[in-house]
Amino acid sequence: MEWLSGRVIxxxxxxxxxxxxxxxxxxxxxxxxxxxxxxxxxxxxxxxxLLDGVAAGPDSGLLGRLWPAFFTGWLFGFGxxxxxxxxxxxxxxIDADEFAWALPLAILGLPAFLAVFYGVxxxxxxxxxxxxxxxxxxxxxxxxxxxxLRSFLFxxxxxxxxxxxxxxxxxxxxxxxxxxxxxxxxxxxxxxxxPALLGTRQGRLPGVGLAVLIVTAHFGYGYxxxxxxxxxxxxxxxxxxxxxxxxxxxxxxxxDTAADRAAIFDxxxxxxxxxxxxxxxxxxxxxxxxxxxxxxxxxxxDALARIADQLDDDQVLxxxxxxxxxxxxxxxxxxxxxxxxxDGRGQIIGASDKTHLVPFGEYVPxxxxxxxxxxxxxxxxxxxxxxxxxxxxxxxxxxxxFYPLICYEIIFPNEMTPEIRQADAILNVTNDGWFGDTPGxxxxxxxxxxxxxxxxxxxxxxxxxxxxxxxxxxxxxxxGIDYNQQGFIDTTLGGATLSRIDDKARKIYFWLIVGxxxxxxxxxxxxxISRVN
Length: 533
What we know:
13% strand; 6-stranded mixed β-sheet; single chain; 44% helix; Nitrilase/N-carbamoyl-D-aminoacid amidohydrolase; alpha/beta
């Protein structure tokens, strides 16, 4: 290992740049659909050694001394995000004639931008750099800070945060309930980077010892949490049966005519009224995916009447739909990506609008400027979607409350409002058909499962083309439908975990962990400076 670390530290020029990019790309193997978490050990060990070897000219100013560290982190992030997000380009090929020109921006431009965060992380780590375990703590501290920043800056995009690589299975997800995904990220970076100590002489025993302690606690708590029962609903005997419908509508299916839209609507209805498998109980709640209704539902009374005809009086349909709000004469209406609750009489009895929209997918930032450059939404709506000011809980006639998250809203751990404490389940409707059978839908599904673990709530997830599933509060998939499969699943809704930790506590624990590794790095740095002096 010492021989290997020495070779990596001394590599230079073009070979060094390629090695840094490769180190970042290797880490993606820890994410779905691969789930090979050991790849992160290779990725971060290489990053530590590469940062050991950064150097600037003797006459360089402050920026000149920091630039090699930033560029190393940027290249690492570029490799990581290109390998992990290349599938975003698939959405642009749905309407290739109009959007193919933007492929380089999606496949290379977004990763180049996100890589700036990792460049900042390596600069911050390098400022605190020292020999031995201190530099591992510095890296964990800096990645924890930048992954937190990535969760909200510039509307936020915490997709594929490093911590997800440490949570491929439910046993390894449970720590997120206590310290959150961001807390897991800090500790994961520390553990993933520890093999770098095997290639140097200092800090091996304390570094490896602390890593073993962290891993033991991670797996130990996972085993303990999975052995705990769930809290039953108010009346377990009458726990509702929920049906998830996955219509598997090809994203390239045209909806140019009323007949096309009617056929899509009919498919949803047909799957909704199928008899339960194996003579099971009829579903009480039926869930359709995001924007499942291919027209403005409130303008189509016949559609509401057909829903009423197919539902029993005590059944409820929950569906994604586009909601329109009339703004008055001469003013363009506003469109919302919404969820409707419809009762057995065809009445809309509840609704919730999406609050966190997808940039360039559902709205164009700085639209007045970018529209002159020909940049438009991928979604074809005049002016795009509008964002709701507040998320609304969905309350069903039987008193159950669902916390609604539309599409990628579920990837934001810091956006859970206090109302989620009142919810009986998380409801996630999405349409991952934009991304084809690529790693994207599988990555999205993992992040949804981790949200269920963090909140200690069951997850009901309906996706147009998959992955649809019922997930228990510990992230275990109770039943599901794989990508690109048409069908439905019925499952009795379970309860939350017995002891739910709230988001405020998770944030406190995250900052305590960041503080501890930061102090470790600072103490090591100060000790190193004193020895040099």
